[in-house]
Amino acid sequence: MPDAVGRVVGRSRVRSTLHRVQLALDDDQQFFQETTRKFLEQETPITAVRALADDPAGFDRSWWARGAELGWTSLLVPEANGGGSLSGQGVLDLVIVAEEMGRLVSPGPLLPASVATLAIAEGATHELRDAVLPRIVSGDVIASWCPVLPGGEGVSVTAEARDDGFVLTGTATPVEAAAQADELLVTATTANGLTQFLVATDAPGVTIEPLGSVDLVRRFAAVHFDAVTMASDRVVGVVDGAADAAARQLQLAVVLQCAETVGALDRVLEFTLEYLADRTSFGRPLASYQALKHRIADMDMWLEASHGITELAAVAVQERADDVDEVVSAAASYVGDHATEVVQECTQLHGGIGVTWEHDLHLYLRRLTLHRSLHGTPAQHREHLAAALLDDGGSTHG
């Protein structure tokens, strides 16, 4: 474990929140998990994911609407706008969906839609919330998010104030599901800070340029804003004061990404163990060889640690913990570093078949390789973490 991450996990103020991590699901959450898994296995198994590889959208909108009926889109939305969570802790409930989608490298804009939904629910005017959130909850409207990196880096859109609103200029990239979305949450630089806007994708001056992706079903685009006029009622949050909101949105994105990664690792290790138990060499199952047992033990340890730090980060985001920024970066760094290593190890354990197109391993490796570079690489999160520790005097602690 990198030193900076180890220091966060080991520091007393992080340990003090550890007992609050909910390792067991309550009855409602367990039913929700089982329902989501059954739906994904029946409606979008791996064969369906492969079939969507040539689909320009990467997912079917009617399928997404059916997922919305299960509650995927409502967990961060106030009851007044048609939402509601299972446990009263929407982030933790949403993590359940992310893990299950990870198990089947599922399609769909869960992460960007959830981030945009959170922003609208927490920062939009009552009128904008009432107009947009019920349609997002129903699945009729798909919202996406133009991401911002740690510390507010990566914002390349500017908004100039006008008497009747703002004019947006610049390019946001890469934006997941931009071409499939109806609304985009955009962070722009304004006169004295950052400001966020909800921009309709069919607004005059918005151009969406599809980009390539290593993932078979995740679609990305560069979104160009050419003097896009925004009315003041489309501002989400406070003008010039969106830095904290953007940071919270990134924290949610990282937690959902880590949860999806953990779900994928669970499944990869699961079918690798099945393969090693079924495959024999010199009359013995491969799983019986001591050298392979050691490798499996290492991977299982990394997986369990990834579960733990992801759950800790989810609780920190849900509770708005004082150290949430540090814990989330610790999770991103640890999970990002170990995820691709686990899949590469499992590929080796499968032998030649593991590197074929027909085997499912490459689907997981594609997804987790993508995750490793989105929303901050492990190295970027370690740098962000180290800076946070130095800022609060962490360098003086052992």
Q: How many distinct helices?
A: 13
The top-level CATH class of the largest domain is Mainly Alpha
**Shape designation:** globular
β-strand number: 10
Structural class call reads: alpha+beta
The span between the termini is 16 Å
What does this structure look like?
The chain has 398 residues and is α+β, with helices and mostly antiparallel strands. The protein has 3 domains: 18-142, Butyryl-Coa Dehydrogenase, subunit A, domain 1; 144-236, Butyryl-CoA Dehydrogenase, subunit A, domain 2, CATH 2.40.110.10; 243-396, Butyryl-CoA Dehydrogenase, subunit A, domain 3, CATH 1.20.140. 53% of the residues lie in helices and 15% in strands. It is built from 13 helices and 10 strands. It has helices spanning 3-10, 12-18, 27-43, 46-51, 61-70, 90-103, 110-123, 126-138, 243-278, 290-319, 324-350, 361-373, 378-391; strands at 143-145, 157-162, 165-176, 183-190, 193-200, 206-211, 220-231, 235-236, 280-281, 284-285. It has a 4-stranded mixed β-sheet, covered by helices on one side. A 4-stranded antiparallel β-sheet has the order 2-3-7-6, with no helix packed on it. A two-stranded antiparallel sheet has the order 9-10. Strand 9 and strand 10 (284-285) form a beta hairpin. Helix 3 (27-43) runs parallel beside helix 6, helix 6 runs antiparallel to helix 10 and helix 10 packs antiparallel against helix 11 (324-350). It is globular, with a radius of gyration of 21 Å. The two termini are 16 Å apart. 45% of the residues are buried.
